[in-house]
Sequence to fold (329 residues):
Amino acid sequence: MDEKPEINNVIAMMSFAAVVSTGGFSAAAAALGYSKAAVSRQISRLEASLGVKLLDRTTRAVSLTPAGRELYTRCSRIVDEVNEANQVVTGMLARPRGELKVNAPVVSSLFEVTKIIPRFLQEYPDIRLFLNLSDSRADLLKGRFDVAFWVGDPYDSNLDTVRLRHYGMVLVGAPQYLAKHGHPMVPSDLKEHVCISETHLSRVGEWHLSDDITVSVNRGPLTSNSVRLAREAALGALGISYLPSFIVEEDIAQGRLQALLPDLVTQQIPLYLMFPKGNYALAKVRAFVDFLRKEIGGDGKLSSPGTMGLVATADPNRKKARTKKAQIS
Fold:
């Protein structure tokens, strides 16, 4: 294949990206101001030039082939950068603008993201923000989202990350459950209790309570990747759950749940913003990231490609790690 870029291919790639992002040829044609037939011809020429099939077409839907997915991860960023370059040249980028697609956990309201976003939009009225609430991992490289919040350690080394802050973890049980089964007095007592497994932040059968205490627990009747479901199970007296403090702090204050082993549980979990490498250069992404760093706190430094997830946020309450860690089984 000729490695020299062809201007016709670049134009066709923009049409290809439009077909994928809008979901079809008609919508892409309307967005680009072309005819549907012209867009179809551009895609066909691009496939012929590259020697691979990029799209599977049926009468009802258009889907990406493996080669198409690989190309789209690059084309979507090219389109964003071309659009922003055009806006710079025409003097239209006095403020960040355009559509910003953000993914966040369903529990975002508990760490005030849903309160912060309206303030962000008041400061940047030219941005149209789409917020999707989902506890699943957002595939940012496919271009569906520009930025994602993530509670826990980053899951993709191909992403840049900004650590916003830490949250404490807490062991909790309902008074009804504890009245029947008793309170654990030391971490090893947890093996004798019904434990609700939450797999987003913890491994099945293992709870990391502090820098030097990891305890093996029996798998209870419920295993889920949802902190919300684990909280509901604890409230229903099904067993003991290990959850972020912001999920259950009101339940503890109201007596619906009781914190267990509070002097021993010092584990912290981070809240990150994640986005494809290079996207911080886009004004809309940069504005959002910088605004969240200011609002949520922490040092919020952008991690470099080689040090993803290693940006530390100071926490004066966190105990220093000891050299030797204890495994309680």
